[in-house]
Amino acid sequence: MNMKEIAQLAGVTAATVSNAINGTGNVSEKKRKEIMEIIEREGYSPNRFAKSLRTKESNTIGIMVEDITAFQTPRIINGINNYVEKQGYAVILNNMSLLEKTGNHYSELSSYQSAISKSIKLFNKTQIDGLVYVAMHDRDVMELIPKLSIPIVLVYCYDTSKNNYYVTYDNVDVIVDVAECLMKRGNEKIGVIKGAEDSLPSQKRLKSFITQLKKEGKELKEEYIFPGAWEFDDGVKAYERYKQLEEKPTAIFAMNDLMAVGFMDAALNDGVRIPEDVSVIGFDNRQECRFTRPRLTTVDIPLEKMGEKAGQILLDLISGKTPEDRKVILPCEFLEKNSVI
Questions:
Q1: How far is CA 108 from the centre of its chain?
Q2: Which partner from 20, 172, 310, 336 sits 20 to 30 angstroms from 294, CA to CA?
Q3: Domains of the chain listed by start with CATH number
């Protein structure tokens, strides 16, 4: 069904149908109502692109993601889409697939800076009213984002230049809950599996954790700090180092769920009981962790809410409103399950 066919059914010209849809021209209310009833009955949808040429607005936003396979990306996209769809906006998605090119090495991303900037500029030329940029690592992207002619909101990253609006999550306050959970259960010897060395979130979490231990007169021994880079195998390697220790930690805080599950898997395969012999806490609340036994105690990042907030800010910018804050940092939630005793 097209506009010409709608016009034939209504006994008018295609121009009259167009005027009825857009509220222009001299179309009587009776005729407009008749045309709209036919449109609804026939399930006709006006061409969005053609309309955008007239109004200069497409009611479409772009979502550019560094990598759609990164664990947080689908949930953030879902949050964005849920919000903007309710406001009558469509979404165009562009995936740059950077994870397979750079892995979890933040420093490698700088070599793709020109490619990322080029992709953003090309996306900017499409018929979109605004753009949400979703990162795969929580980091400063100040040098990454070129100036655009449309509004842009960053998610899961930030911009210290204060030029862009961004939505991210808190890496510090929730660590108080993690530390208190372990200490109130009498754990004197606590180990940590770090994230990548150049990861600011990992550094913030570690610093906050050490601060909380010190407040209770405890320390984090150097031999209880295990290196990692966010992968399952890093948790396995941490367990191998753990079991070589003469005095073993009674609890492990892994900076993400993958490393926590890697540690748990290696420990359980070696006959170590969790949480009876060693408690384990992760960070991320990945969907896969619903299937671990015991269920992993972890930290939930409000990914859907981050997406919704980014969508809200972007549509406000598109409509000419000025949001109160350029940065929005949402709190995380500590989820106590069965891997701690």
A1: 20
A2: 172
A3: 3-46 (1.10.260.40), 58-170+302-332 (3.40.50.2300), 173-300 (3.40.50.2300)
